[in-house]
Amino acid sequence: MSDRNTYQVPFIVSIAILIACFFVNISLGSVSIPLEDVFNSLIGSSTQQDTWQHIIINYRLPKALTAIIVGSGLGISGLLMQTLFRNPLAGPFVLGISSGASLGVALVILGSGLFGGVFATLFVSKWGLVIAASSGSFLVLLAVLMVSIKIRDTMAILIIGLMFASITAAIVSVLSYFGSAEELQQYIFWGFGSLGNLSWEDLFILFVIYSLGIFMSIVSIKPLNTLLLGENYAKSLGLDIKTSRLIIIIATSLLAGTITAFAGPIAFIGLAIPHITRQVFNTSNHKVLLPAVFIFGAMVMLVCDTIAQLPNSDFTLPINAITSLVGAPVVIWLLVRKRKMVF
Amino acid sequence: MKNSILLILIFLLVSCKSEPNKQFIESDTVHSLALKYAKGFSVVDYKTFKVLEIKNPWPQAKKSYRYVLISHENAAKTSFMKDEYDAIILTPIEKIVVTSTTHLPALELLHVEQTLVGFPGTDFISSENIRLRVENKRIRELGKNESLNTEILLELNPNVVIGFGIDGNNRSLETIKKSGIPVIFNGDWVEHSPLAKAEWIKFFGALYNKQKVADSIFNSIEKEYLKAKDIAKNAKIKPTVLSGAMHNDIWYLPNGTSTEAQLLEDAYVNYLWNDTEGSGSLQLNFESVYVKAKDADIWLSPSNYSSMENLKNANEHHAMFKAFQNKNVYSFTNTTGNSGGVLYYELGMTRPDMVLKDLIKICHPELLEHYEPIFFKRLE
């Protein structure tokens, strides 16, 4: 009850800011569209120019929704990893999930020439990259899971995740060495990350898997809070560590795996958002943190996307550069100001 | 006694310095190679030897490179201050290694392709003639431009390696230079106009002592180009043209001062970004491209997408353009050699006249009724 009172105001304020960010994101872009027409497009009325309606409905709106999904999804998976491994440096990338995705994408793009056959056909198909990235992250996760059954120490799993990341990075560099200029270019473009590449159909599929991940995270709130006390203590409280760990890892891989598959490896958000949220809300209770990370992740991603679009200019920047440029100084500033890490 | 020893020593030193060979000085100028468009190199002929200067091997190059081109016979009679030149190259070249497919058409046009002994990435070669030599093992595979197989290259021991650099850093070329094989950086790609790029055939002409042949080849390319340009001016309408395509969120397209844009200008079309300036390509936001080019008549070179389906799969927004809906999308990616090398990348730079005619045929088909495009094909 006291929690509700303490956090009611910050929650209301941040939801209001999130909604504002959403509308600002939709109204700003290379083409300046009057607010009235932005609104008319959203409610389906006619606009002064047909092109504007297409831009709002089929480009900016899916992009803004993708930003919300990407920001909140990566933020939550970062939070889950940091709590599970009790390590402030953990994030969705640490378990090798994103490296697995990169490997899948590299095999399809760079390996199509080398292996031909299946890879070449995958490359042509619309779902090539998505299937490759998802299966890549899933396979790496499966390997980590199998190891985690044998090894009980979460730190060891963390290190094994990092080792998997190194192995996949090595395979990617071998593939890059043999890849053609066009293939390398394609792989690098994927690495820039992008939010504006999703059609409504893609977005629907992303949303379904994302919702499943979010649902599993909500289910894990209690175990997460217990885990903060340490595994032995959690066990003495009657928590089934193995099952909880499995659910948390699957939730992370669903969230980070699909997001990476659709939007590319978006750096920084997964690691930084939980820290920013903890600094603002000053709590480690996941009942508060989980929804707060959701809101902050979505908010930061919308802001980053708005900046990346360089409103009113014809140019645009890769989203990956902006997430790091905008986010990292914020975390540094918060830490310097508070002088310690809330964890 | 001491003095006499000193005298003997001085005498010995002086006699060592006296040169058996005549040392040439550059003031003996006979004439410079006439270049109409190219600015990146020069060749000055001093009767018994030539000095080749590469002024702009890569954008914003800080220094120029000077090479002496001299015949075997004259080399025996001449000595040069080695420090003044980057290399002394014996001509005509008997064994050469080039590193870009764009260097190949010049060798073929000058009928010296039999001197090519090695190439990095032989699969990219489209020319049937040179492909045959690859298959007959007359041309060795050298790996990649950025990391040439040094051992094979040293074994081949060519008279010269024609490299190219994005900047001055190419470690494998440095290693080759150190082992005594001269490396010349070819800067044809830095030139600012299609004809200037094509004029680099004269650079190869100088290496093979075939200046006159190179001149006449270039003159006919220039003549054909200017003739095509004149024909294009007769067009009654100037179609609007869109170019490039999206990779993720960003639409990459040639800027208005690029050679691609100049070719479009000469083909008498309205390239929608011809008012832009700058080096490299433009990176635009989908929104701005969409608003400007939604109704463009023709879409040329949609990046490396090779079919309409690929183009649509890569990004659904591609299908929103009128040119896409009317299937007016043309690309050179599907015109390849037997092992997949794109012909345009190999031949396009040396033969801008052919590229221009292709563009005119696409944009004003009535002007070149019997012409069959060489590089560009409509995307299926």
What does the model show?
The complex is a heterodimer of chains A (343) and B (380). Helices cover 78% and strands 0% of the residues of chain A. Chain A has helices spanning 2-27, 35-43, 50-84, 97-109, 111-115, 117-124, 128-150, 154-178, 181-192, 200-219, 221-227, 231-236, 241-263, 269-281, 286-308, 319-338. In chain A, helix 3 runs parallel beside helix 10 (200-219). By secondary structure, chain B is α/β, with parallel strands linked by helices. Chain B has helices at 2-17, 72-77, 104-109, 128-135, 150-156, 171-178, 194-198, 201-207, 211-233, 259-266, 286-293, 308-314, 322-325, 343-347, 352-363, and strands at 22-23, 31-32, 41-45, 49-54, 65-71, 78-79, 87-91, 96-98, 116-119, 140-141, 160-163, 183-185, 240-243, 245-247, 250-254, 270-271, 281-285, 298-300, 329-331, 377-378. Chain B has a five-stranded mixed β-sheet with strand order 2-3-4-5-7. Chain B has a five-stranded parallel β-sheet with strand order 10-9-8-11-12, covered by helices on one side. In chain B, helix 6 (171-178) links the parallel strand 11 and strand 12 (183-185). Chain B is globular, with a radius of gyration of 25 Å. The termini of chain B are far apart. The model of chain B is unreliable at 16-21 (pLDDT under 50). The interface between A and B is medium-sized, with 35 and 24 residues.
